[in-house]
Specification:
7 helices, 259 residues
Length: 259
């Protein structure tokens, strides 16, 4: 089982395949997962494997930890490309998410104005207006869209909200009016004897049709890079990813590929 958990509020900086020199912020509990998805590829493991017992950090704790780290980096002459909310679960589930975003933007403006603020989200909390409005303030909203098939979403992302559907998700993503980046993982495998594959021509065609509705500023596609809790999952080849990327470009979108 996968064992990667972030036990600090601020971690890194690390080199991200998609974002460059990234200073990470974990506003989930430090001892386990708290997420509205239970993705079969999550590097932190499945929710039932890594339940959180401690509380999430408070807003003032996040502000203090980030300020201390940015001052340290500034003193060392290190400049992050991006301050990224990710960590042990879904950051937008934090009850003080909107205030934490305000604090982060203020610290960025004061201590590293060239850095961007990014949020990696599974897109499940967009119905909360305070979350949506906070996300409009950040530089890069990386929103998950692993499939537009409800069956495949259940297989790959396993949302806690049983009424979560692709139609509802796309409706929320359209509210950004293009101020977002779509991130999609492509993979194959099986679980409990059921084959899982979101790379068929039918699924890619429907996914691209959804991209045209959402109209993101960029699309990021990638495949498995680290250990996954479901061991049968397999990476998609770079050639296959590039073929998908070419279809996305022909549809009129900028796309990056990480294999």
């Amino acid at each position: 089982m996968s064992t990667i958990l972030f036990d600090q509020i601020v971690y890194g900086p690390i080199h991200s395949r998609r974002l460059g020199v990234s200073l990470g912020i974990n506003i989930s509990p430090p001892d386990g997962k708290r997420c509205s998805f239970n993705c079969i590829y999550c590097e932190c493991g499945l929710n039932e494997e890594r339940p959180a017992h401690r509380r999430a950090p408070r807003r003032e704790e996040v502000q203090q930890a980030l300020e201390s780290k940015l001052l340290q980096m500034k003193g060392e002459g290190i400049h992050p490309d991006v301050i990224t909310f990710s960590g042990n679960g879904e950051p937008t589930m934090h009850p003080e998410f909107a205030g934490i975003i305000d604090d982060t933007i203020a610290l960025r403006d004061r201590l590293c104005p060239e850095a961007k603020v990014a949020v990696l989200s599974n897109s499940t909390m967009l119905h909360k207006e305070e979350v949506f409005q906070a996300l409009l303030k950040v530089d890069e909203n990386l929103m998950k869209l692993d499939s537009v098939s409800d069956e495949r979403i259940c297989q790959i992302d396993d949302p806690e909200m049983k009424d979560f559907t692709a139609e509802k998700l796309i409706r929320q993503l359209k509210r950004f009016h293009g101020k977002l980046i779509i991130q999609t993982i492509f993979l194959r495998g099986e679980r409990d004897g059921i084959m899982i594959d979101n790379t068929s021509d039918e699924e890619i065609t429907a996914w691209i049709a959804a991209l045209k509705e959402i109209n993101p500023q960029k699309v990021m596609i990638y495949t498995i890079d680290r250990e996954t809790p479901v061991k049968s999952l397999r990476k998609i080849s770079l050639d296959e990813l590039n073929a998908i990327a070419e279809r996305v470009r022909k549809a009129g979108f900028e796309v990056s590929v990480s294999a």
